[in-house]
Structure formats: C-alpha cells, structure tokens
Amino acid sequence: MIKNKKILVVGAGGFIGGHLVKRLLNDENFIIATDIKPKEYWFQDFEKTKNYYSMDMKEIDNCRKVTKNVDYVFNMACNMGGMGFIENNKAECMQSVLINTNLLIASKENKIKRYFFSSSACAYNKNKQQDVFIKGLKEKDAYPADPEDGYGWEKLFSERMCRHFMEDYGIEIRIARYHNIYGPFGTYDGGREKAPAALCRKIINAKKNNEDKIDVWGDGKQTRSFLYIDDCIEGTIRLFESDYSEPVNIGSDEQVSINQMIDIIENISKVKKLKRDYQLDKPKGVRGRSSNNDLVKEVLNWSYEIKLKDGLKKTFDWMSNEISKRGSNINRFTKS
Ligand code: GDC
After folding, report:
1. Local mean pLDDT, 10-residue blocks, the chain (336 residues)
2. Fewer Cβ atoms within 10 Å of its own Cβ: the N or the C terminal residue of the chain?
3. What's the rounded Cα separation, in Å, for the pair 111 and 195?
C-alpha cells in the first residue's frame, strides 16, 4: 500500500483523478492536488486536504512549483472526453502533450522518485480494431503506430516521452492504458460524456419524460469493453507499486456491443424496450475494441472484479439521483 507519501495528483478535479485522490487520502498520504478547472467545478471535493491548486499544468513554472519536495507524481490530466469530444477537438487534445512534457521535466529537476502516466486504449493501432468483435488488444498492438487521430497520437507520443525520461534520466515510470472507465462522478452531459454515461442519461430522461425512443450513435453493433472506476483505481495503485515500467492495459475483457449495453441499462431502469434511433453521422470511433488482460494478470497477479451489469447499476443509480437533484444540463460540484 502507498502510505505516508507526499503525492502530487495532476488532474485531481477530473473523474479518475478525483477517485484516485480519495483512495490515496484514505491510505493516509499527503496530497497536493491540481486541476485547470476552478475549484467549484471539480468533480469531487475533499475536506481533508487544503492543498488544491487551480492552475494550468501546460505551464512549466506551475509544474516546477508543485513538484517541489514531492515523492510521487500521478499525471491524470488531459483535455479529453468521449467520441463526441475527441473527434471534434483534435488540436485541443494534442496540446495535452505540454502537460506531460513539462511535468516530466519538472519531475526530473525536482528528483521525483516515481511518475505515473494515464494513457488510453486510443493509443492502439486502428487497423486492429476494424471488426465488430475483436480479440482483446495486447500491449504490443500499439505498434506499428497508427492510433486514434489527435487524442491517441498524444497518448502514444507521451508514453514514449515517459520511456525516454526513464532511459536517459532514471526516473521510474508507470503507464496504464485505460479502456473506457465509467462510474459515479463521471461526466454525463455537456458533450464530453462517454457511451455508458450518455446512454444511462438518455434512458433516465426517456423514462422521466415518458418518451419511447433514444438516440444512439452509429448502428449500435460497434463493440467496446468498459471498466468500473473502483477496479480502475485498484489496478492503478497495484501497477504503481509494481516494478513494471512498460504500458499495461487497465481494462475489462467483457466485450459488448452498444446495443447489448443498452439492453443491460434498460433492464436496470425497468423501462419498456425503447426504440433506437441510430444516428450514422455521429462520431463512432473504431468498430470494435476490448482489452487483453494476460499481461496485467502476469505482472500484477490481479484482475478486475466488477461485471458490467453491476457497475452500470451503481452508475445508473448515482446518475438518477444526480439528475433528480440537479437536472441533467448543469455543471456539477459534489462533495464526496
Ligand atoms: O464515447 P465513447 O464511449 O468512446 O463511444 C463508444 C461508442 O459508443 C462509439 O462507437 C459511439 O459512437 C457509441 N455511442 C452510441 N451512442 C452516445 O450517446 C453514444 N454518446 C457517446 N459518447 N457514444 C455513443 C474512448 C475515448 C475516451 C477514452 C477511451 C479509452 O473512445 O473517447 O477518451 O480514451 O476510449 O478506451 P470510445 O470508447 O470510442
């Protein structure tokens, strides 16, 4: 267990970053937390730490300030979202390269012991994801390089930047390739939401408004695997504590089509079967994607636990509560 360490979490106001801070605080670490969002827009709030900074970590001076006298750095920050965001904001997504680069330089200068980079399944070669059901992606499938345009190129490049800082300067590196992480406190509206949250929201609202139809992007046959946030955090901590410095999948191998995921959410919500308006002109991304977990099992002796239907139930219940409290189209700020 990581305990009694001074840890910088960059992107602490976001979804995964917020859950990570919560876990590290519970494990009795001293946390410095930064995010570009003003504090009132952070996804979770933590009473126990006063060391929050709202700052742009693309600026190297900010990176230098907050890496002083720190043991470990977790870089959970990037400008990101689901397909609706990353397909239409490639230049924005690629600028996150400045966060990782300047944070690595500052970490090297301030002699940080270990550095974590949150990469993505979007780093994988697109050609290996053209069929509806594919074999899970193995870590080596990122090469030859042909990742998701914009966002995926930034992730792959930044992975390599980490690797070279390790080779040339000896900074210890850990890299997770996350596969569509979902759960409570995730974005569910506003344009950055990913499919699990978007489809839960659409079904909650259809039920509330007595509608019999939802919009679905694509033909619904495209596949993904989705990992619940608690498993993501457990895998992240275990990877960080391991001695493995190459990228590792943190994902699920429960591959489902978007249609199958909608079936699961409809069951949870107890609505009658809704009509599906397939929108073929909306962002679709790759045709099929899933995680191969051989390496994570070998290196960490660990596998995720939460099945999609159980994780979606927790997410659906949380979101129903949020929507009834706050409505579905406002910025959220929730105390954890
Ligand atoms: O957005 P996403 O979850 O991202 O979309 C998965 C699939 O669900 C897409 O084919 C999309 O067209 C379909 N879909 C159907 N309806 C909807 O209402 C909807 N909203 C959304 N968002 N999608 C819908 C993600 C990246 C992340 C991250 C992960 C890593 O790609 O966007 O930033 O890095 O990958 O796995 P997805 O899975 O393509």
Report:
1. 95 97 95 94 78 95 98 98 98 98 98 98 98 96 98 98 98 98 97 98 96 98 98 98 98 98 97 96 98 98 98 98 76 44
2. N
3. 40
> 137 pairs with which residues across the strands?
291
The arrangement of secondary structure in 6-182+228-252+291-305, i.e. its CATH architecture, is: 3-Layer(aba) Sandwich (3.40)
Residues written for the chain: 336
Q: Output the CA 251–ligand 1 centroid distance in Å.
A: 15
Cβ neighbour number for residue 292 with a 10 Å cutoff: 18
- Say how far apart CA 135 and CA 110 lie, in whole Å: 42
Helix pair angle (258-269, 308-326), 10° resolution: 60
Torsion of CA 108, 113, 118, 123, to 10 degrees: 60
Tell me the catalytic residues: 151
The type of residue at 273 is K
64 DSSP assignment: H
Amino acid at position 200, single letter: C
Whether residue 122 contacts residue 96, with contact meaning beta carbons closer than 8 Å, is answered with no
CA distance 134 to 292: 10
Alpha helices, H only, 214-302: 229-241, 258-269, 294-300
Domain spans of the chain? Answer: 6-182+228-252+291-305
Distance CA 301, CA 299 (A): 6
Q: Are 126 and 148 a contacting pair, CB within 8 Å?
A: yes
CA angle 233, 165, 13 (to 5 degrees): 35
Place of tokens 């995730």: 186
DSSP 87: T
Residue list, ligand 1 pocket, CB within 6 Å: 80, 82-84, 86, 120-122, 178-180, 193-195, 198-199, 216-218, 222, 224, 258, 282-285
